[in-house]
Specification:
Number of strands: 5
Largest sheet: 5 strands, mixed
Distance between the termini: 19 Å
Shape: globular
Radius of gyration: 13 Å
Strand order of the largest sheet: 4-3-2-1-5
Structural class: mainly beta
Oligomer: single chain
Length: 79
């Protein structure tokens, strides 16, 4: 298993513009991780060029690039 340090940020408060990685509110993708059949959110990385996150159960890493010609869909399934 990967020995990279991990951080899980849990809150009951909605993310605000000040709390988003690139300064925009609502900057997330909803993802169902098929590996463990769990839902989680991916948030903008610090560079603002991708959404990144991990499966909350097995810690599989997922990165989704942001660019022209992308999708306006907010919810996905990752296998």
């Amino acid at each position: 298993m990967d020995e990279t340090p991990r951080q899980l940020d849990l809150t009951s408060e909605p993310r605000t513009a000040a709390g988003a990685g690139d300064g925009s509110a609502g900057g997330f993708l909803g993802v169902t991780f098929e590996c463990c059949r769990v839902y989680s959110r991916l948030y903008h990385n610090r560079a603002g060029d991708a959404y990144e996150g991990r499966c909350p159960k097995c810690m599989s890493f997922l990165k989704v690039g942001i660019g022209p010609g992308g999708s306006n869909q907010r919810f996905f399934s990752a296998s």
